[in-house]
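Replying to the earlier thread about multi-chain prediction with a worked example.

Input:
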Amino acid sequence: MNGPEKPARGRKVTSFDVAQRAGVSRAAVSRSFTPNASVSPETREKVVRAAKELGYRVNYLARGLINRRSDFVGVIAAGMDNPYRAMQIEQITKNLVRRNFKPILLPADHGESADHVMDQLLHYNVSGVLVTSDAPPTALCAEFAAAGVPIVLINKADTIPSVDRVVSDNNAAGKLAAATLVEAGARKLAVIVSSATSYTARCRQQAFVSACYALQRDVRVIPVEYNSYRHGLAAASCLDGVDGVFCVNDYMACGLIDGLHRQGGRDSIRIVGHDDIPQAAWSAYDLTTISQPCDVQAEQAVNLLVSRMDEPAQPERLEVTPVSLVRRGTA
Amino acid sequence: MNGPEKPARGRKVTSFDVAQRAGVSRAAVSRSFTPNASVSPETREKVVRAAKELGYRVNYLARGLINRRSDFVGVIAAGMDNPYRAMQIEQITKNLVRRNFKPILLPADHGESADHVMDQLLHYNVSGVLVTSDAPPTALCAEFAAAGVPIVLINKADTIPSVDRVVSDNNAAGKLAAATLVEAGARKLAVIVSSATSYTARCRQQAFVSACYALQRDVRVIPVEYNSYRHGLAAASCLDGVDGVFCVNDYMACGLIDGLHRQGGRDSIRIVGHDDIPQAAWSAYDLTTISQPCDVQAEQAVNLLVSRMDEPAQPERLEVTPVSLVRRGTA
DNA sequence: CTGTTAGCGCGTTCAT
DNA sequence: ATGAACGCGCTAACAG
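Result:
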């Protein structure tokens, strides 16, 4: 007979099996796989070998049942067509995994579905939830907080008791955009933004408009339905007389640039984006933009989460992600 | 007193609490939340009300302990910088959630980490695993199969007993690319491809080269380190004498186009990409490409998964995702 | 249709 | 340091 024994088909190997084979009690097996438990090196040795031979692995679900905690963290995300989301999700999940959490990813595009999906999470007693969705689940958040489940909102508006948030420094971003455009020689400014969906984008818009007033420049708000490539593309035809534009995100800015290019007037108008998605650096766009570092943002979010796991009763906190200008060709 | 009662801080409300408040047994509570269970409408009514008042929710983890199954499905993904991955992950997770699974997303970029991460999954007895990573976990897959965990590989090479796969129709893609370039008037062909990482990309390359021979055209293979934007950009300087290029993915093709543009020679050379990422349709690129529909691919993968969950012993299967040409400006 | 019993796989007292 | 007993939250099987 060669190779490790196979457990009987379909029957999972349990700590009992290991205990039996190692000639010890189940408690000994448990302790052998629990950090900082008191087991003699010899018993542990026996247990570990038996476990390996049987292909045994601790059932974390059962363990969690006793400890009253699972290592799961819900990640709610909407608008995955925006490349920035992909970066966000990558950073968040990597950060989570690094700290030994298991991210369960829940796409929630169509508003109502977010409720249903978050509701599901309660059944798995996740030890926390991260929300990057644009569509606010408002009331549901309170329910989580009430259930004692830490929840962190990323770039969202609602200030809810016991719900922490991390938001980008939109104020600085708006100012930076205005200053950069003006410095580049723009006189007639505009900002393209969806009035409905994204809270954080509206904040940037407001900061931008204020800054333009302060700099004594004309500024127009060009409303679109959604901050996406498509709508940026379409907005290109609404820019008569404008010579400097702030796009509230790069995704839309790429559309705008392509739209202007079709009209042959790309170079005559300065553009600043926001997010610094990979495409902004692609030389077809070479977009001057404001970086929102989603790696530090992920770090902040997860930090808030674990800190509230340790101390659930503390008052809600607001963390601000710093932004910075990335100078490229469009301004 | 108004509003729903709050459970004591920190103490989760259990089926026992509900049973007590509704004046029934715990079994009755259980049945009230189990589809197709036999409960009288009245008891269920009482139970549901009590549950609502207490904020009770069934603990699926405990339930899974009995049923010997969790609703979790592991999703291993690498190379999230490629926009195609983002689409893939979105489709996969949406599909999973629609069928009431909970996708746990595990980023696994650096080869070795994939092993560790997949190993973790065994502890949560997931009911299946989907792998889209470029780096093959080879031996580990067998371990999963042995443990009775269904596992489906997307666009990967290894044929392992009991491990199902879904791969894109790379043969058709290669032929299609060659035919399209030739039809567009190309005489000196080339294919840009990483020789190390992606199995599926190498298949496309081989099919392409064969098709070029069949069409009696010259063809060169231009090797790069990784099929990414950066390397596509760099490859632009290796194309002397070539007038038709097949990029094994769009991500790299975007880089190539930008690279050629810098040299001022974009229009003189025909290009076909693969995947049909959103950026391929962006008018800065307007890339003729071969669509690999990741929504149907996700559907295929999940189908394979559930079918093996129902019937674990069946022989491994191979499903092919159909591809189709999307004509745009570059060919 | 209902309540009672047993047990899923495991961690943790409490003795020894 | 080790084993026996109990319980985490829930459902399956069995009576009634």
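Residues 12, 14-16, 26-27, 29-31, 34, 58-59, 61-67 of chain A lie near DNA strand C (CB under 10 Å from a C1').

Feel free to reuse this layout for your own posts.
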